[in-house]
Structure formats: structure tokens, C-alpha cells
Design a protein that fits this description.
binds GDP-alpha-D-glucose, 16 helices, 476 residues, disordered N terminus, alpha/beta, six-stranded parallel sheet
Length: 476
């Protein structure tokens, strides 16, 4: 991580307050049943924890408990400041406004988005509490970095209280095009909320353009300048830079961790355990309807039916991490996925030898690395996805330059990983063709594609992402 950033992230003499504060819905840790804290899974934590480990500062967020009474505490030298949620906040802000309104709308409305004035009122009030907690942590003239779709109103709420602060905002999911954004009754509030930041970061250039189109259509501004990867908005005394910063992974640490004798031994043992098939396909996702898990199972099933994949030589490992089980749409996708798993195994498996090895739980990251190294083809087929870090982790882990990536055009990663097998996940025939092409390609092509993708991720890794965002924010 860049050393010249450290001056602005030192813990200050300003009482207990910090020069660098991250604000996200969730803290990087969760409370386990036995009362201990462990890392909470998901893309935002995977990305931000290494960034925080390189600096001193505070992280403001919810600890995952409802009606809890956690206080401020320290984890791996990070000051954690807890924002409490009541049962009503959880239902209305988290399950309701965040995950039944914004999440589906911003992911292309593949599930119907719900619009309820009551849940939106709670979204506002909870955002205000996060903003207040952030201001309480932030030292005079400090930098605050607000994250993700749960906290879109927080930048302007901080700006109101703390004109001295440098405020950054980063959205981890896609930002919708005008025709979808327009449906949101609170679209102007959201955009005004974001424009409280000095820098508004998005995953892709398309997302940055969508924000600017929304601002042009719905906000009062003095001036908007458009550039290739974003633009600048001026309104009154406030200037916001809106720009794409494709998020990434810690390439070198993943590459090193995946390239050891222990991992080699574990990979051989795993492949032997599943019957040494010639083709190992892999999916790793939160069990979310945006990820297209059902779609890839359907494609694999048809390839087996059409004898384009040999059931004696094919295994698909699907890790589906439980997620948001009480939110609308999640039980349905779980049912669809599990029905397809049963159909494939029932029709094509043998006793003791299922085709789909389905794991409905989170695994330690060290085990994910073994899966990444063991898989001939990774299937990443979301209908819509901000970036998809799993794709970049897989590429980083393949120090052997082997393996292939089937990647949805609608994942942010598709803007960068152009040597993958790109697919339109809505096109089942196209998806089947690309899976088959990835399975059948020769070794030279496999190496060529993997080397190119690894170079891409190596030169645009997580450190580069954080550095470029914070450098621009420092100039604000
Ligand atoms: C959001 C956006 C965007 C997964 N299973 C296990 C596990 N994981 C880790 C992976 C990866 C992360 O979770 C998943 O990240 P993704 O990017 O694939 O997806 P989301 O959780 O939806 O993340 C996404 C991201 O934010 C970052 O901006 O890319 O578009 O939706 O790091 O390794 N980790 C462990 N066990 C598991 O079983 N330990």
C-alpha cells in the first residue's frame, strides 16, 4: 500500500478521533453463537479489510445483531464503532429499503422492487445515525470513506455537519440507467445524498455515466462536465467528481497463498476424492438471485442431456453461501437452485458419485483457494453484478497459468477480463457453447488467456484501487 497516504490516515491527537474513518453498513466482523467475533463474508469486507490493515483508523458499522448492546471495540488494530439496529430498523431499513427496494432495482429489476414510504423513512433515519456516528469518530480535517447502497444519503448528511471533512463514497453494486432509476420515488434524495461527497466512485464507466445522467435529469446543478470515465458536477459551493474505480483483489497475497506445496497436495487430494474427473467446473457465490446460479445449472444440465459433457468425467462444485434468508426472493432462488441440483444428480449421478457437489455454507478462504486451483473452469454467470471479486480471485490464484473463466457480460469484471469466455447469461444456448468451448480449448490457448487475465489483475490490484481513489480524494 502506498506510503505517501499514511500522513492523512494517522490517528490524531484529537481526543479519540481518527483522521481516517470507513463507514459501511456492516462491520468487518460478526458475532458468532459462542460470543466470539469472526470475519464476516462478502465482497465489501474482502476488499476493505486489506485496505484498513495498511492504515490506522476507525470503521463505523452494524455488528449484525438486532437490539444488541455492543460498544466500541478494537479488532486487528481497527477501532470499531457499532451502530445499533433495532428489530424494526432491521425489517424496514435493512430487509426493506436496502434489500427489497434498492438491491433489486439497481440489479436490473430481475426481482420486482418494492417501494414503501415507511421503509424509506427508516432508511433516512438510519442513514442519519450512521452519519452522526461517523462525525463523532472523525478528527478535524479528516477523511471519511462511505460505502455502498445502504448509505447513499450519508455523504450529504456528513457534509452538513462537517464542512471540514474530505468525503469519499464508493458504490459496490451497479448504478441503474435512467429508465430504472426513474422508478425510485426518492431518486433525487439519493442523488443529492451522493453529491455530498467530494469523490463518488463507481465500479464501471457505465455506472459512472448512469449517475451523471440521473444528476442531469433530476438535480439542480450549476454545471456538469462529462469525461470518458465519469465527470464533474458543480452545485453551489460543492464540487463532486463522479468516476469509475474498478475494485480489485490483493493479487500478490492470493497468488502466494495459492502457490504452495500444501495447496498442491490438497488439490490432488480433492480431485481424487471426487473421482479424478477430467472436467471440474466451479461456482462460488452468495446464494443470491442476481448471481445466476440456477441459470448455469440449467446450462450444465442441458449439456449433459445433449452428451456434450460426459457425466462420468464431469463434476460441478457449487459453493452457495447462505445470504439474506429472510428477504423476498431469496427462498425462491434457493428452491430453484436445489431443485436443479437434485435433478442433475438424480438423472446423471451414480451412488457415491454426484455430478454436482453442492455446499450451502461458507468455507475458510484457504479452502476456496484449493477449489480455485482445482477447477478447470470457473462459472461466473450473474444477471448483473457490481464487479465480482470471485472472478478476480480465481485468476490471481492460478499461478500455474491454467484454468478458464466463463464470465457474464453483466459483471463489472467483464470490462477488464476480456480474455475470459464472455457470455450473455440470458442466452442459454450461448452460455452452453461458451462452457463447452472453455472445457475443450487447447493448453496453449488456455495459458495465453490466463496469462493475459493475470497481468490485467496484477497491474490493477486492490492497492492500486485504494491508492487511486484516496489520491483523488486528497486533492479535493
Ligand atoms: C459485492 C458486490 C462486488 C464467497 N464465499 C466465501 C467467501 N466469499 C468471498 C469471496 C469474495 C466475496 O466473498 C464475494 O465477492 P463478490 O464480489 O463475488 O460478490 P458480493 O458479495 O455480492 O459483493 C460485487 C463486491 O461487493 C466488491 O465491491 O464485486 O459485485 O455485489 O471475496 O472470496 N469467503 C470465504 N468463504 C466463502 O465460502 N471465506
Amino acid at each position: 500500500m502506498d506510503n505517501d497516504q499514511t500522513s492523512m490516515v494517522e490517528r490524531s491527537d484529537d481526543g479519540d478521533r481518527s483522521q481516517f474513518v470507513v463507514v459501511a453498513n456492516r462491520l468487518p466482523v460478526r458475532l458468532d453463537d459462542d460470543g466470539s467475533w469472526s470475519l464476516s463474508p462478502g465482497g465489501l469486507v474482502s476488499a476493505m479489510l486489506p485496505v484498513m490493515r495498511q492504515r490506522t483508523g476507525a470503521w463505523v458499522g452494524w455488528d449484525g445483531t438486532v437490539d444488541g448492546d455492543s460498544e466500541r471495540f478494537e479488532f486487528e488494530d481497527i477501532q470499531l464503532a457499532v451502530v445499533e439496529l433495532s428489530a424494526a430498523d432491521h425489517d424496514e431499513y435493512y430487509s426493506g429499503a436496502c434489500n427489497e427496494t434498492i438491491w433489486p432495482l439497481y440489479h436490473g429489476a430481475i426481482e420486482a422492487a418494492q417501494f414503501h414510504r415507511e421503509t424509506w423513512a427508516t432508511y433516512r433515519s438510519v442513514n442519519q445515525r450512521f452519519a452522526d456516528a461517523a462525525c463523532a469518530e472523525l478528527a478535524e480535517g479528516g477523511t471519511v470513506w462511505v460505502h455502498d447502497y445502504q448509505l447513499q444519503l450519508v455523504p450529504s448528511m456528513i457534509r452538513e455537519q462537517r464542512p471540514d471533512a474530505k468525503i469519499g463514497y464508493y458504490l459496490h453494486i451497479p448504478f441503474p440507467p435512467l429508465e430504472l432509476l426513474s422508478r425510485l420515488p426518492w431518486r433525487q434524495q439519493v442523488l443529492d445524498g451522493l453529491l455530498g461527497a467530494d469523490v463518488v466512485g463507481l465500479q464501471t464507466q457505465a455506472d459512472a455515466r448512469n449517475v451523471l445522467s440521473g444528476v442531469r435529469r433530476f438535480c439542480k446543478t450549476d454545471d456538469i462536465v462529462f469525461a470518458a470515465d465519469g465527470g464533474i458536477v458543480r452545485a453551489g459551493h460543492q464540487t463532486a467528481v463522479v468516476k469509475s474505480f474498478p475494485i480489485s483483489v490483493d493479487y500478490h497475497s492470493i497468488a502466494a497463498e495459492a502457490d504452495t506445496d500444501e495447496v498442491d497436495i490438497a488439490v490432488k487430494a480433492l480431485r481424487a476424492e471426487i473421482g479424478n474427473p477430467s472436467v471440474v467446473l466451479l461456482g462460488v457465490d452468495r446464494l443470491d438471485y442476481t448471481k445466476g446460479i440456477d441459470l448455469r445449472l440449467k446450462a450444465v444440465r442441458e449439456l449433459l442431456i445433449e452428451q456434450r459433457l460426459d457425466p462420468r468425467e464431469t463434476v460441478l462444485i457449487q459453493v452457495a453461501v447462505p445470504s439474506r434468508e429472510d428477504v423476498l426472493g431469496y427462498e425462491d432462488v434457493r428452491n430453484r437452485v436445489e431443485q436443479l441440483v437434485s435433478m442433475i444428480n438424480g438423472d446423471f449421478g451414480e451412488l457415491g458419485r454426484p455430478i454436482v457437489q453442492y455446499i450451502h455454507k461458507g468455507l475458510p478462504f484457504s479452502e476456496l483457494l484449493v477449489l480455485y486451483r482445482a477447477a478447470d473452469v470457473l462459472l461466473v454467470t450473474p444477471f448483473q453484478d457490481g464487479m465480482n471479486l470471485v472472478a478476480k480471485e480465481y485468476v490471481s490464484a492460478r499461478a500455474d497459468n491454467r484454468g478458464a473463466l466463463v464470465l457474464s457480460e453483466f459483471a463489472g469484471a467483464a470490462e477488464e477480463l476480456t480474455d475470459s469466455f464472455l457470455v450473455n447469461p440470458y442466452d442459454t444456448e450461448g452460455l452452453k457453447d461458451q462452457i463447452e468451448a472453455a472445457v475443450r480449448m487447447g493448453e496453449d490457448e488456455e495459458r495465453e488467456r490466463m496469462v493475459a487475465m493475470r497481468e490485467q489483475v496484477e497491474s490493477n490490484d486492490l492497492a492500486a484501487w485504494a491508492k487511486s481513489f484516496l489520491a483523488l480524494l486528497a486533492m479535493a
